[in-house]
Automatic annotation (TrEMBL):
Organism of provenance: Mycobacterium paraffinicum
InterPro entries according to UniProt: Nitroreductase, Nitroreductase-like, Nitroreductase/BluB
A Pfam family per the record: Nitroreductase
PANTHER family per the UniProt record, alphabetical: IODOTYROSINE DEIODINASE 1, NADPH NITROREDUCTASE
Keywords, in A-Z order: Flavoprotein, FMN, Oxidoreductase
Nitroreductase domain: residues covered: 2-175
Stated name of the protein: Nitroreductase family protein
Length: 218
């Protein structure tokens, strides 16, 4: 959810979201994570400038044929470069709203970890936070573009980098302007799943999303 209202999120709600995050599984229960909540308007304005610059860097990479957004997964049916470029255009328009209204975001949540083995420990916590936020009626989106400016982020937040802390991601959180729905533009389960060996039939086809849409959910 990138279209967020500026209404503040109560501290009690923030606490429930982060309490869900720290209940996530992590190797050896080492809990090598730290969360920095930012709701100071001046800080958010400073991060807004960095965020816009960071997005420009990512889309420069895309235009040059580099970066993770350039191509679909290998073997994806209908991997039409023209169609993918159109998808990216629509995504950029959606992201533009977040960038243009960044100063209105009521809560930024920066997530840090130490020696995280590719995110094995921190991403379950991030996803738990996003799911808890959804349950609280709070929209959110995870972004990693500010890792283009890690030094600036660390300085603004006073991160003790000498201890080994590194930023994993940032979450933008706020009450939504729109409505939630089920992402329908996904390759179906039977195209991306196998059973008992790579490329073997999964055993069931899922032509339509199995999760109810917002309008049908109780």
């Amino acid at each position: 959810m990138r279209r967020l209202r500026p209404d503040p999120i109560p501290l009690e709600t923030q606490a429930r979201i982060l309490d869900a995050a720290v209940r996530a599984p992590n190797g050896g229960n080492t809990q090598r994570w730290h969360f920095v909540a930012v709701d100071d308007p001046q800080l958010i304005r400073e991060f807004a400038q960095l965020f816009r610059q960071a997005r420009a860097i990512e889309y420069e990479k895309f235009s040059a044929g580099a970066g993770p957004m350039v191509a679909l997964a290998p073997g994806a049916p209908g991997a039409d470069p023209t169609a993918h470029a159109e998808t990216m255009r629509r995504m950029r328009c959606s992201g533009n709203y977040l960038a243009d209204h960044f100063e209105e975001i009521p809560l930024l949540l920066f997530v840090f970890a130490i020696d995280d083995l590719g995110g094995a420990n921190i991403y379950p916590a991030i996803w738990s936070a996003l799911l808890a936020a959804r349950a609280e009626g709070v929209g959110g989106v995870m972004t990693m573009v500010l890792r283009n400016f890690t030094d600036e982020v660390n300085e603004l937040l006073g991160v003790p980098v000498e201890e080994g802390w590194e930023m994993s991601a940032m979450l933008a959180l706020g009450y939504p302007r729109g409505k939630w729905g089920v992402a329908a533009n996904r390759r179906p389960v039977h195209e991306v799943s196998s059973r008992n060996g790579w490329g073997k039939p999964f055993g069931v086809e899922v032509p339509q999303p199995l999760w109810p849409s917002q309008r049908n959910a109780k």
